[in-house]
Specification:
With 412 residues, the chain is an alpha+beta fold. Helices cover 53% and strands 13% of the residues. A hairpin with a 2-residue loop joins β1 (147-151) and β2 (154-157).
């Protein structure tokens, strides 16, 4: 029989107590943190899965953060475009109101004042900053004011054509804004043509049908009617101007006298201006021109123009009490462009709202999987803690008993 020394018995008891204390401490830490796996050694397989789930959660949460930023910028842009829509609708109303021959110069100038106020508001909105100080419509140059006004009636775009793409899911990116060039600068205008240079020569009566105008809008050549005799060249020029304008709603052609007192024809829309003279192109036409044919045609052109210059030119024409037919359609086309961009912004907002919900569902699923791997079963842990405490107390009490078993205690 082998002999077990007192030292060995004591050491074994101490080791047993320390081991039991470690178990109690580990269980107590699990209960206090609510986590089953405190370090990889507790459950290597679960620890590996938890690490992967944490990485997936961080990625999804970053997507959600990106969505919040994109949503904020797009909502700011949508608010600006909504205001711009209302502003351009009002500008269109004023253009129609100002395109009235019965308006006095005072009335026309009063309308021009409001148009210029709308222009200032639109210019200010186009240079709006978001909450972090970045310009909304500057493209990648978000630290630079996108629009400047170096001279009266002249506007310059200082941004670029960039659109920042934000990652909102592993395979989806969305633009968090639009550059201002496409919205405010490169704006389509209505086809426009001008014929200038007609001199009033014959001052006698002009019969109906001797002069016709055709704006190329499908209504064909329209007679400007009977022109009574005129006493002066200036009177005849004014008569022709009034006669052409009397059928402008059907022909699409407007007339005005230019600075030289010559007849100027302006067209909005259609495929070109044709001014048909009398069959003999003789004096009864009431006009002379550099063209030898009986029909003078000016081809239409449509050149992009920024919204600010359109409103500035509209106001200038109103201040001069001139017809503004061409600017009515120009304002409407600018409005259509803004509405189109608003539609795009709304679509992107709907898209990221849907993706946000998808991401939220995925995040919840990942959290549930992580919880199943990592979270503690409190009922089981508390029961285990009670068992371990009982075992520790038993080990401590038994140690006291064993420590008292010494031969010297029985010696006299």
């Amino acid at each position: 029989m082998s002999r077990i020394s007192t030292l060995t018995i004591s050491q074994r008891a101490i080791d047993a107590m320390l081991n039991q204390q470690a178990k109690v401490s580990n269980t107590q830490l699990q209960i206090s943190t609510g986590r089953r796996v405190l370090n990889p050694a507790d459950d290597p397989a679960s620890a590996s899965r938890i690490l992967g789930l944490n990485q997936a959660l961080e990625t999804v949460q970053q997507y959600q953060s990106n969505i919040d930023r994109a949503q904020s910028r797009l909502e700011t842009e949508e608010g600006i475009l909504k205001s711009a829509t209302n502003l351009l609708q009002r500008a269109g109303e004023l253009a129609v109101q100002g395109n009235n021959d019965t308006l006095s110069r005072t009335d026309s100038r009063a309308i021009a004042v409001e148009v210029r106020q709308l222009l200032e508001q639109l210019y200010s909105m186009a240079n709006t900053k978001e909450s972090n100080g970045e310009y909304i419509f500057a493209g990648y140059q978000s630290g630079t004011a996108p629009f400047t006004n170096p001279a009266a009636g002249s506007y310059v775009y200082n941004g670029d054509l960039g659109e920042r793409q934000i990652q909102i899911s592993p395979d989806r990116r969305v633009a968090d804004g639009d550059n201002g060039f496409g919205i405010f600068m490169n704006v389509e205008t209505a086809p426009f043509a001008t014929f200038t240079g007609g001199d009033a020569t014959d001052l006698t009566v002009i019969a109906a049908g001797d002069i016709k105008v055709d704006g190329g809008n499908g209504n064909g050549p329209l007679s400007i009617g009977v022109i009574p005799a005129a006493a002066t060249v200036a009177e005849r020029a004014q008569q022709l101007t009034d006669a052409v304008n009397s059928v402008s709603d059907r022909s699409g052609v407007r007339a005005k006298l230019n600075a030289d007192g010559k007849l100027e024809l302006n067209l909005v829309g259609g495929s070109g201006i044709s001014m048909v003279l009398a069959a003999d192109a003789g004096p009864k036409s009431g006009l002379t021109s550099t063209a030898t044919a009986t029909t003078v045609t000016a081809a239409t052109t449509s050149v992009p123009r920024n919204i600010f210059e359109t409103l500035d030119q509209l106001a200038t024409e109103l201040e001069n009490n001139q017809p503004v037919d061409r600017y009515i359609d120009d304002v409407h086309l600018a409005l259509d462009g803004v509405i189109s961009t608003r539609t795009s912004v709304g679509g992107r907002l709907n898209s990221i709202d849907e993706q946000q919900q998808v991401n939220a569902d995925l995040e919840l699923s990942l959290q549930n999987h992580k919880s199943a791997e990592e979270d503690l079963d409190f009922a089981e842990a508390i029961a285990r803690f009670e068992r371990q405490m009982t075992a520790l107390q038993a080990a401590q009490q038994s140690y006291v008993k064993i420590k008292g078993l010494s031969l010297f205690n029985f010696l006299n």
